[in-house]
Design brief:
The complex is a heterodimer of chains A (about 270) and B (about 70). Chain A has helices at about 40-45, 85-100, 120-135, 145-155, 175-185, 200-210, 215-220, 225-245, 265-270; strands spanning about 15, 20, 25-30, 50-55, 75-80, 105-110, 135-140, 160, 190-195, 210-215. Chain A has about 270 residues and is an alpha/beta fold. In chain A, β6, α3 (about 120-135) and β7 form a beta-alpha-beta unit. Chain A is globular. Chain B is mainly beta and about 70 residues long. The chains are: A alpha/beta (about 270), B mainly beta (about 70).
Chain lengths: ~270, ~70
């Protein structure tokens, strides 16, 4: 299908979640930055529209500022339920985050394991069922597992967020084969969350057909977080465009790029 | 006279008869708090000035911080 007038950028390429049409497919986390003050430049550089944050007890000894004071209007706030070990705790944190002014979106994160911070898919499904009924737009963070994703779909989750590698590890798409299965089988946006450490890995996730990626540590721990945010933005856009463009087939043996008429070969053998 | 309440999991002695809002104003980080759970229930901000703290009350005072 060759046609000289193919549009480079599709006319409409929204990512619709919870009734919101997003043009950016790079969600950014706000943890681990040297200071809250860096966050606005990072979000601008990443051109992100969805931003995550966490709820914690006030530390009376050390001054803290509400992260919302650093975020511009118009961003979709995605509080996480980090710290929750059970569905019940996740539900409680989600309600508190909504009361704190975060809106209806929530990233469910239920973790018991302290070495690898791997999510408890079972508790996550239960929390999702409860919070969807309460009107939340629920984005659950999960280990990439098809059965879990099917249950989340049935429960009314707005997306599924499988991990690429353990949180904060910067190790990339270690779970790529399982994420591919979710992308193929689950009719929900699949957002790769956790583990992406380099823009090239974000591009790969997008080429595979991920709907978006969520990046925090890779940007926050870069020497220049603002530059890295831009690098991720470009990578996510490139990967998305590559996915839409439809990559060619892979083959074992070479497939010549130039015509194989071989006149030079003939000329050489004449001598 | 003083009473004991639990704030963010820690036993705390406070003056009797204080409203939540008045007590919070006496703490550091006045502008940080974003949401309060009072005896296990979320307490709307509008109710902070009129909610008087009693012996044995449990408070969770929370703030939104950076997170992934």
């Amino acid at each position: 299908m060759t046609h000289v007038n193919m549009p480079i950028v599709p006319v409409e390429d929204w990512l619709e979640i919870g009734g919101v049409k997003l043009t950016s497919r790079l969600f950014v986390g706000t943890g681990k930055f040297p200071a809250h003050a860096v966050v606005p430049s990072v979000i601008e550089s990443a051109a992100s529209q969805v931003v995550t944050m966490a709820l914690r007890r006030v530390d009376w000894q050390n001054p803290q500022e509400n992260i919302l004071n650093y975020l511009t209007d118009g961003l979709v706030l995605l509080p996480n339920t980090s710290g929750a070990r059970t569905a019940e705790e996740a539900v409680r944190i989600a309600r508190l985050a909504r009361a704190a002014g975060c809106g209806d979106w929530v990233k469910i994160e239920v973790i018991r394991d302290q070495h690898y911070l791997l999510p408890d898919n079972f508790e996550t499904v239960i929390a999702t069922e409860i919070l969807v009924k309460e009107g939340f737009t629920v984005l659950p963070y999960v280990s990439p597992d098809l059965s879990t994703a099917r249950r989340l779909l049935e429960a009314g989750a707005a997306a599924v967020m499988p991990l690429g590698a353990p949180i904060g590890s910067n190790r990339g798409l270690k779970t790529r084969e399982l994420i591919k299965i979710l992308i193929e089988e689950i009719p929900l946006p699949v957002i790769v969350d956790a583990g992406i450490g380099r823009p090239s890995e974000a591009a790969e996730a997008m080429e595979m057909g991920a709907a978006a990626v969520l990046v925090n540590t890779a940007i926050a721990t870069a020497e220049n977080p603002v530059a890295m945010a831009r690098a991720f933005r470009l990578a996510v856009e490139a990967g998305r465009l590559a996915h839409l463009a439809g990559p060619g087939a892979r083959t074992e043996q070479a497939q010549a790029s130039s015509p194989l008429t071989g006149f030079l070969h003939e000329a050489l053998t004449v001598d | 006279m003083n009473i004991n309440i639990t704030v963010n999991g820690k036993e705390t002695e406070i003056q009797d008869g204080l409203a939540l809002r008045a007590w919070l104003e006496g703490q550091n980080n006045f502008k940080a708090w974003t949401v309060v759970e009072y005896n296990g229930e979320i307490l709307e901000r509008e109710l902070w000035p009129s909610t008087v703290l009693h012996e044995g009350d449990k408070l969770e005072v929370l703030v939104l911080l950076g997170g992934g």
